[in-house]
Amino acid sequence: QVQFVESGGGLVQPGGSLRLSCAASGFGFIYYAMSWYRQAPGKERELVATIRPSGSTNYADSVKGRFTISRDNAKNTVYLQMNSLKPEDTAVYYCNAPSLLIAWGQGTQVTVSS
Question: What average pLDDT score do residues 38-47 get?
Fold first, then answer.
């Protein structure tokens, strides 16, 4: 069955960096666009970044220039490199295929605080 397992979150100071990983299984990963989403307390889940099978990418305006999404098709894994982190980046981060949006994982908590 489709499964997403996110990891790499943690507590970081403003200006710091984290690299998130998402291991996907149960579908033809190499044929699907993959996205990272985040949900802050009291807010709706929002799209952060997308990478297509071609490698082309899109980013939310709020993270453009700071975050980089990448994928390793051999490992069925998608990554999110987050630099220059801000307190407003605090959220639970999830990955999914935007054309599937099923079987959400447990997410990984990112907390940006001094």
Answer: 96
